[in-house]
Design goal:
- By secondary structure, the protein is mainly α.
- Among the domains are: 127-203, Serine Threonine Protein Phosphatase 5, Tetratricopeptide repeat; 206-257, no CATH class.
- Helix content is 73%, strand content 0%.
- The radius of gyration is 42 Å and the shape is elongated.
- Residues 94-122 have low confidence and may be disordered.
């Protein structure tokens, strides 16, 4: 009787055990959490690497910009030196000094007249016309540099008639004023410099023209008008070579007032 009861209890426990659910682990791939951590770390390293690369590129660009800024500063200094030197030479000429500058090696000879240049016609290409304009301007400028002032006046005036709106018209108008000024024709010089301002208001020659108008007024002892021109240069065109020269003149006027 006891044996039969024991067997019945065992059979009942086994049946109950078989009815319990068995958890299914097949849906969880092995190492899933580890793989996710590894992928996140790789992405972070890629971002950090890209940031370092960008920082290196920015540093290289900064270095290039600094080099270019230094080169520009050197060029500006050279330009200022050349301008001041030329201005001093022109002023020396007005007081009876020596020739302006010696002819540069390989410069265009002023004896080459406009008649010897290639004729312009409707078939001339824009590039050829541009070359002719530049050559004509260079001839007149070299004539001025060689000290042939009357000839230079004629060449600049003819150039402005032929190219009134040309690329070099503002420069030609300015140097025409300089040539008149050196030749002591102050009324013509004033008219020429004034045309630089009125006909070419956006030209970089405008501050120089204002400066020279101030010089002319100063030479004629018109102190108030001279001061006005010098002040216009310093206030409207600060940082230019013309402004530096105008400042010097204003300081001289203040010291004598």
């Amino acid at each position: 009787m006891k044996v039969r009861l024991f067997l019945m209890l065992c059979a009942s426990s086994l049946a109950h055990a078989q009815s319990l659910p068995v958890p299914d682990h097949s849906t969880y791939p092995p190492g899933m959490n580890y793989a996710a951590d590894t992928s996140s770390a790789n992405t972070l390293y890629e971002i950090l690497g890209r940031m370092e690369q960008l920082q290196t590129e920015v540093q290289q660009l900064r270095g290039t910009i600094e080099e270019q800024a230094h080169t520009i500063a050197q060029l500006k200094a050279q330009q200022n030196t050349l301008y001041i030197d030329l201005d001093q030479r022109l002023q020396a000429l007005e007081t009876g000094g020596a020739a302006l500058v010696q002819p540069q090696e390989g410069a265009v000879e002023p004896s080459q007249s406009a008649a010897s240049l290639p004729p312009e016609s409707s078939t001339v290409t824009p590039a050829t016309a541009k070359a002719n304009e530049q050559q004509r301007y260079q001839i007149a400028y070299e004539t001025l540099k060689k000290g042939h002032y009357s000839q230079a006046i004629g060449e600049f005036e003819q150039f402005l008639k032929d190219y009134p709106a040309g690329t070099y018209a503002d420069n030609a108008q300015y140097w025409l004023g300089e040539t008149y000024k050196v030749n002591r024709d102050m009324a013509a010089a004033q008219a020429a410099f004034s045309k630089v301002i009125s006909n070419h208001p956006d030209s970089p020659k405008v501050p120089d023209a204002l400066l020279k108008l101030g010089y002319i007024e100063l030479d004629q002892n018109n102190i108030a008008q001279a001061r006005d021109y010098f002040t216009q240069v310093t206030t409207r065109y600060p940082g230019t070579t013309a402004a530096q020269l105008a400042t010097q003149k204003l300081q001289q006027l203040d010291s004598h007032s």
